[in-house]
Design goal:
The chain contains 11 helices and 5 strands, in the order E-E-H-H-H-E-H-H-H-E-E-H-H-H-H-H. With 318 residues, the protein is mostly helical. The strands form 2 sheets. The protein has a 3-stranded mixed sheet. Strands 1-4 form a two-stranded antiparallel ribbon. Odorant receptor.
Length: 318
């Protein structure tokens, strides 16, 4: 009979830095992506909070998306980078539990928020006259609260169950963070029922929001097709296609991880696909959704102008 251990001993990550010849390059790339994500999302939050022209429902939702992305990437990447620098691969049981909970809560909140943001764009383009009513401040706060509630419910429901299983003596997680499927492979108990529950949760958290996104953008494209302005159609198609690319990467990679049968999974593929929705997406969201937008670039220029103005005045005094 296989021995197992339920004590709070450390887990060991197999991670992304297995090959010495490429580990330095991967470390540099992930570091650049991490700091770019923090800076881009931080700038977005600052601009939306300080520029009155960006005090609209769309940018209000985008500021919360940026906040989630900053927290989201910070639950995973810093631990990876510190482990590499210290030449260690371990994480404590408590640390793994906390990371698992924060990851599920934040990714769940983002799943719901992206779906509801697509609804916001649908209302703005397809029902512009009713937009102030349908997307009032109260509705926006309800969207934010609903997203956080859905994500938190997922974290509080699944984390205690995942971490309560007895784990085998081999505590090597073949992943770069404490993601549920990778952790469950170490369990010495039957996890079939729990995996069924997790599958149902993933259907609710992935398929429903993604269906809302697809339906919203389908209606938007239908409306845009009827526009008389060729330039307007091109701009709308370009915006929709870039949004759908990022959303498809995010939802598609998550669906592969959580909804595909185990027989289709390979550890190397799992890690690569997890990179898409845990590391790349938090960097791409502000770049695609916001910083390419004329309103945001205008706000950035005004902010830089306010920053340079006092410098010129103080420079003239001396």
């Amino acid at each position: 009979m296989e021995e197992y251990n339920t004590s709070s001993t450390d887990f060991t990550f197999m991670g992304l830095f297995n090959r010495k010849e490429t580990s330095g390059l991967i470390f540099a790339i992930i570091s650049i992506i991490f700091f770019t994500a923090l800076m881009a999302n931080g700038v977005m939050i600052f601009l939306i909070q300080t520029d009155l022209r960006l005090h609209t429902p769309m940018y209000f939702l985008l500021s919360h998306l940026s906040l989630i992305d900053m927290m989201y990437i910070s639950t995973i990447v810093p631990k990876m980078l510190v482990n590499y620098l210290l030449d260690q691969r371990t994480i404590s049981f408590v640390g793994c539990t906390a990371q698992h909970f924060l990851y599920l809560t934040l990714v769940g909140a983002e799943f719901f928020l992206l779906g509801l943001m697509a609804y916001d764009r649908y209302v703005a383009i397809c029902n512009p006259l009713r937009y102030p009513v349908l997307m009032s401040r109260r509705v926006c706060w309800m969207i934010i609260a609903g997203s956080w509630f859905g994500g938190s419910l997922d974290g509080f429901l699944l984390t205690p169950i995942t971490m309560s299983f007895p784990f085998c003596n081999s505590r090597e997680i073949n992943h770069f963070f404490c993601e549920a499927p990778a952790v469950l492979k170490l369990a010495c108990a039957d996890t079939a029922l729990y995996e069924t529950v997790m599958y149902v949760c993933c259907v609710l958290m992935l398929l429903i929001p993604f269906s809302v996104v697809l339906a919203s953008y389908a209606r938007i494209l239908t409306t845009v097709q009827c526009m008389s302005s060729v330039e307007g159609r091109k701009k709308a198609f370009a915006t929709c296609s870039s949004h759908m690319t990022v959303v498809s990467l995010f939802y598609g990679a998550a669906m592969y991880t959580y909804m595909l049968p185990h027989s289709y999974h390979k550890p190397a593929q799992d890690k690569v696909l997890s990179v898409f929705y845990t590391i790349l997406t938090p960097m791409l969201n502000p770049l695609i959704y916001s910083l390419r937008n004329k309103d945001v670039t205008g706000a950035l220029k005004r902010a830089l102008g306010r920053f340079k103005g006092p410098q010129r005045v103080s420079g003239g005094v001396f």
